[in-house]
Amino acid sequence: MAQFIAETEKINDLEFVKLVDRKNAIQAQIIPALGNNLVSLTVGIGSKISELIWIPSEIKKLKDGHHQFYGNPILFPFPGRIPSGQFDFQNQKFQVPINFEDGTAIHGFVYNKKWELSQISDPSDRDISLKSTFRSTPAIEKFFPFPFRVEMTYTLRPFELELSFTAENIGTKAFPFGYGIHPYFLLSGERSDWVLYFPAEEHFELIDLLPTGNTHMVPEMFDFRKEKSLKDIYMDDLFGNLKKDTDGYTTCWIRNVKTNFKLSVISDPNFDFYVLFAPKWGPFICIEPYTCIPNAFNLAN
Length: 301
Description:
Number of strands: 25
Radius of gyration: 19 Å
Order of helices and strands: EEEEEHEEEEEEEHEEEEEEEEEEEEEH
Strand order of the largest sheet: 16-25-24-21-18-19
Helix content: under 10%
Number of helices: 3
């Protein structure tokens, strides 16, 4: 029997797709109908199955929209905030819906939409993958008049989950876009047991969580170029000038010093910016690779 298989299951009228590595006791659960969101990633550590992804409540409440962001939201056509949902592009003014309590538009239009499940690969001993797509709707094109189609493939391999994303302009006009992901990594146990390695040298000045365009060297508090404890570290900050390898890839990680379990985030050369979000109110850290900074549409002007 194949090492990698896919299973589907319905819970509260939601279809889950489970990508399973049976040999290594790893399982990823995705809900295409809720933003193509990765709502669970479990791994066997010793005799214990550990959850790596944070969600705030039961799935039923997620379906009813009780919580906006959880799991791994997909951020397109912009990551981060746009103040008042307003931007200019090619001498035109645009107003997109305000969807956050601080009066901003945040994280684009696809993170909570129903994606279409387009393909699940056959069982194999190498990997298993799930491909889903989303096409802009008339409701979206009313305020963002740029038809687009996006596609994401989750591929599970031994000890690796790859996310591959494609955006396609299916209209006749150029439009601005950025892309990011927002994985909520669960810090199980004591926060003091976790350390972070994050090779950023640049820290962005923010006012009301919006970048001014000014940057400075990363302050000592947020300097993780050597592993440092996350105890009493809380942040919602934007970073740049990340160390990359010879192929242009960036690697960062969290590690549990008691178990030595390490979870790495590796991004390709398209991602020059990261947000680190680790609030006091939740037992998680979000390590978010972005292709552009928040409010890039306005700052580009």
